[in-house]
Write a structure and sequence with these properties.
heterodimer, A: mainly alpha, B: about 170 residues, alpha+beta, Alpha-Beta Plaits, 4-stranded antiparallel beta sheet, elongated, transmembrane helix (chain B), ActD (chain B)
Chain lengths: ~375, ~170
């Protein structure tokens, strides 16, 4: 089998169908649900962030394994590289938020006479918000592009310097991401409920990002294997991806609960104000998220065989992805739409539209380079990998 | 009376090859002792996968039930107290202890099951076949049949793979 992925006409058409279906559903939603601008921008933000997080995880996955001198991941390196290629588009979409930020971010209004927000004004103000956004995206895109370029150059040369350079870039990305992953979650998610704050929030969002990224990579492996590619990815690699999904689902729950327990226990009004609308107005959704993100992957991926079975693992990955999307939805809506929020044509349409676009970008990027990178000194280790 | 032959290797590649050859000749290998995990040794020895994960799950489930059950009983039946205005039966406050005891039971259960299964622990009579097994050498211990039919084959394979300190022992079992 050829080592290059060909983005076939058939796949392209099915992606257009997904995107088209999204537009159709949006039109249907426009006619039947008549969403106001707030609902529109809220959905816009949720999907922006959901797909941005997956793209960002492409960078995190590479950086993490490069720093840790991991050998096993080198055979599937092209998938995270392709995921990160969505970042520039995510950046453009995020900047469009300028036109809708008043619908989402309460603090962005002028003349609020709110002493709490006045105290936060040095950080939470519109110009600085976009300056930070520009800095995050500039550095993320710059470093992930360099990583990609470096890995493509490595294909052509056996020089060890590309390996070392990759390691340096990975370290730089990791350092910057460590800070920016927290600040971005404050900026884009936590500031929706501008009066409330939690020191654990950045971690919580980061683990959500990690889990959805892992699930996406599993689905890509599954798809490519189904199409007959990636014969060098064996059960051991899949087992490791399964372990990641299993472990980080547990860790997600751990952080979720750590945040919840402290707020529940201390029972301070300005803190419980965050959970009260989530628990009281969206009770079903609140517990559904816990089941999808923790109970099902925890019980479903406990045994060794379940982690090594790609079909079952893909099913769990889909479950977790849905769970993570709903989680993001519940992080955003109580602060914007509030009680009346429902999941209707508009929401599903947005997801379909974004999904079609995202997959189109990633598959195009995947088709540009061979699926197996060459000349990485740790590549041989990846083939003989055993857990 | 059981008869063993023991020897040590300086290199794990020799050990792996010798193990495979001995298994091919239907010699039963009692144990292999290595200073670090050797890749492929488990398959070369033909070990089945351990059932330890099942033990861990059962013990963890017991721990979970005990922790949750005890807290429920203590806080609602035996000694109900109002703490922080919370209801007597408040699940979130039970979870940290339930979690910890689940982990504790699973860990202890696994350790104890491992000791029982491999006949280790206080008072166990362990025979050290080769002193170098406590150091940095790869030691192999082979069961011999009482008739002594296999002695020559085993010795020749071990010698071919540059094993050192080959010794035959008779130990009361």
């Amino acid at each position: 089998m050829d080592n290059n992925y060909t983005f076939t006409r058939k796949t392209q058409i099915s992606l257009f169908v997904i995107g088209g279906l999204g537009i159709l559903l949006l039109l249907l939603g426009y006619l039947l649900e008549a969403p106001n601008s707030q609902r529109f921008w809220t959905n816009f933000l949720i999907n922006n962030l959901f797909f941005l997080f997956i793209a960002l995880f492409g960078g995190v996955f590479q950086a993490l394994h490069k720093i840790a001198y991991s050998g096993w991941h080198t055979a599937l390196q092209r998938i995270p590289e392709a995921l990160a290629s969505f970042l520039p588009i995510a950046a453009i979409l995020m900047f469009l938020l300028y036109f809708g930020m008043h619908d989402i971010y309460h603090w962005s209004h002028e003349g609020l006479y709110d002493p709490i927000l006045e105290g936060k004004a040095a950080y939470l103000n519109v110009p600085f918000f976009f300056i930070r956004m520009a800095v995050y995206f500039a550095i993320w895109i710059w470093l992930t592009r360099l990583l990609r370029k470096n890995s493509l150059q490595q294909d052509l040369s056996t020089d060890i310097k590309y390996y070392k350079k990759g390691k340096l870039l990975a370290a730089l990305f990791m350092v910057f991401f460590a800070v920016s992953s927290s600040t971005m979650s404050w900026d884009w998610l936590m500031s929706i409920d501008a009066h409330w704050y939690s020191t654990l929030y950045g971690w919580f969002v980061f683990i959500g990002l990690f889990v959805s990224g892992i699930a996406t990579i599993i689905l890509f492996i599954s798809f490519l294997k189904w199409k007959g590619y990636l014969e060098f990815i064996n059960k051991e690699h899949i087992h490791d991806m399964g372990k990641y999904l299993f472990a980080f689902s547990i860790f997600w729950m751990y952080l979720w609960f750590s945040q919840y327990l402290l707020i529940w226990y201390s029972h301070i009004p300005e803190e419980t104000a965050y959970f009260a609308p989530r628990l009281n107005d969206h009770t079903v959704l609140f517990f559904t998220i816990l089941v999808l993100n923790f109970v099902l992957p925890f019980l479903g991926l406990m045994t060794r065989n379940s982690k090594r079975n790609l079909k079952w693992l893909s099913l769990m990955a889909v479950v977790v992805l849905i769970g993570q999307w709903l989680n993001l939805y519940l992080l955003v809506i109580p602060g914007t739409i509030g009680k009346s929020a429902t999941i209707g044509f508009t929401e599903i349409g947005f997801v379909c539209l974004y999904l079609g676009g995202f997959l189109f970008v990633v598959f195009s990027s995947l088709a540009k380079a061979p699926l197996l990178s060459k000349n990485d000194p740790l590549l041989e280790e990846s083939f003989h990998y055993e857990t | 009376m059981k008869r063993y032959i023991s020897a040590y290797f300086e290199d794990e590649e020799n050990l792996l090859r010798a193990t495979k050859e001995l298994r091919a000749k239907d010699v039963s290998i009692q144990d292999v002792l290595t200073p670090f995990p050797v890749h492929g040794l488990d398959t070369a020895l033909g070990y089945k996968r351990s059932n330890l994960p099942t033990v861990a799950f059962i013990c963890g489930a017991i721990g979970l039930a005990i922790a949750f059950g005890f807290q429920t009983w203590a806080f609602t039946v035996d000694y109900p107290l109002f703490i922080g205005g919370k209801p007597h039966f408040s699940i979130p406050s039970f979870i940290p202890i339930t979690f910890e005891l689940t982990v504790l039971f699973a860990a202890f259960g696994m350790a104890i099951a491992f000791f029982i299964r491999s006949k280790l622990g206080p008072g166990a009579n362990n025979i050290i076949h080769d002193e170098r097994s406590t150091n940095d050498r790869f030691v192999i211990i082979v069961d011999l049949d009482e008739a002594g039919n296999q002695d020559a084959i085993v010795k020749s394979i071990l010698e071919k793979e540059e094993a050192l300190n080959i010794q035959v022992k008779e130990i009361e079992s």
